[in-house]
Specification:
4 helices; 429 residues; eight-stranded mixed β-sheet; signal; alpha+beta; nine-stranded antiparallel β-sheet; YJL171C/Tos1_C; 15% helix; globular; glucan endo-1,3-beta-D-glucosidase activity
């Protein structure tokens, strides 16, 4: 009888630990922290884009090389929105230096500085102490407020209502005030804007691109589009005030992303080339030029949850799957949400929700650090694997597998420990 009770206790302990191991990776938070973001790598250079019947898109034999903190997302980015969603405010900021983990209790103030040789997969690491005094204030570079269209600066609203192509999908075009239709010139989004499921609009800067060329800043882009540059900066921050109400239309097979709102950033070359091509050579996306989903509902069964996901080749073999955390932000379908993402000086990417945000022309480093530190008790974090590639390689692989595999490894380790527990238990009995 004692033997039976001991077995039951051991079995109950096994089940409890297994459940807790799984549940601990699925929780609601106000902050998602990714550290060690950025690696040395490359992606394909699109040399020719043509939306004809043959879908003639070509890439160069050479590659575009990138390196450093936040790479490749340290390149210019466009900002994308998918409904159901209403945008109240948008702001883009840059800083000379910002260290998100300065003075933090949950993120160690001892950070790791990496010096990586382009041709060798080795990192020389040196620990440096960071102080909040090392961080600089944030300067607003672009702004939109739905309540005052005259205050908009350095923003160009686009959508995909341009020329149609079976190969390239719809080209980008100026968006009208609703965000839904094509306009003849740049137009500011109206106050009562709303996009439904599957509908999208994009924000670029108001800086026109030079001519389409592999040698110019915007690269090669689709013929006939209004081409604008994305938002520059190694150290940058995007802030949003928005609503994501429940979709009012009934679901049907015509929807691809029913009731799945999202806000994300792309390497701005992607929408200028083709956001949804049938030929992967028509865009740099498939070769890993960069996407980060800030707030995204990823499937219909969890449409009350926003996730953050990297779509680069840092530590994963599939850019489509990407790397995310299973922790999520709650989607408020009845109110206004404020949040954003910071790409800091040390390769920390922090997406967050906060009611304390302001959209002022300048935001002090201390104010942003207070917001980040105020979310520490409601935070999930993960570290991306260190990656360096030799540029003669034909593919980019990381030193570790995806975060999902890391979770599986952790659970397996716990199961191994439980197996050892059973062995000890039976030896005692």
């Amino acid at each position: 009888m004692i033997f039976t009770n001991q077995l039951l206790f051991a079995f109950g302990l096994f089940i409890s630990l297994a459940i807790n191991a799984d549940a601990s990776f699925a929780n609601q938070v106000d902050q998602l922290w990714f550290s060690n973001v950025g690696f040395n790598g490359y992606y394909d250079i699109v040399e020719h884009v043509a939306g004809n019947e043959k879908c003639e898109c070509y890439i160069m034999d050479d590659h575009h090389y990138f390196e450093g903190s936040n790479a490749p997302l340290n390149e210019p980015l466009s900002v994308h929105f998918r409904g159901p969603l209403s945008l109240h405010k948008f702001a883009f900021y840059t800083s000379d230096a910002f260290y998100a983990d300065s003075g933090s209790s949950s993120q160690s103030s001892t950070i790791v500085q990496q010096s990586t040789q382009l041709s060798a997969p080795t990192n020389n690491q040196q620990k440096i102490k960071r102080s909040s005094k090392d961080s600089s204030s944030w300067s607003r570079v672009a702004y939109y407020d739905h309540s005052d269209s005259s205050s908009a600066s350095n923003v160009t609203f686009m959508n995909r209502e341009g020329d149609k192509s079976k190969c390239l999908g719809n080209a980008i075009s100026y968006a009208d005030s609703t965000g839904l239709k094509k306009a003849d010139s740049a137009t500011i989004l109206e106050k009562d804007n709303y996009i439904a499921s599957d509908e999208e609009f994009i924000i670029f800067s108001n800086v026109s691109c030079p001519n389409s060329s592999v040698y110019d800043t915007c690269g090669v882009y689709r013929e006939g589009i209004p081409a604008y540059e994305g938002f520059y900066g190694d150290v940058k921050m995007f802030l949003f005030e928005f609503e994501a109400p429940t979709e009012s239309q009934s679901n049907s097979s015509s929807f691809e992303s029913y009731d799945m709102p999202a806000i994300w950033v792309l390497n701005s070359k992607i929408p200028r080339q083709s956001q949804y091509p049938t030929n992967s050579n028509c865009s740099c996306w498939a070769s890993g030029c960069g996407e980060f989903d800030i707030f995204e509902v990823i499937n219909g069964s969890t449409n009350g949850e926003f996730y953050s996901t990297f779509h680069t080749f840092q530590g994963v073999d599939s850019v489509s799957v990407g790397l995310s955390q299973s922790a999520y932000f709650k989607r408020d379908t009845n109110g206004t949400m404020t949040g954003g993402v910071i790409f800091d000086s040390d390769g920390n990417t922090v997406s967050f929700m906060s009611d304390s945000l302001t959209f002022d022309e300048s935001i002090s480093a201390s104010d942003m650090l207070k917001i980040i530190q105020g979310n520490e008790d409601d935070e999930s974090s993960t570290t991306l694997s260190s990656v360096s590639v030799t540029y003669t390689a034909t593919s980019i692989t990381g030193t570790t597998s995806s975060f999902k595999n890391e979770v599986a490894i952790l659970i397996n380790n716990k199961l191994s420990a439980l197996a050892s527990f059973f062995i000890v238990l039976f030896n005692i009995l």
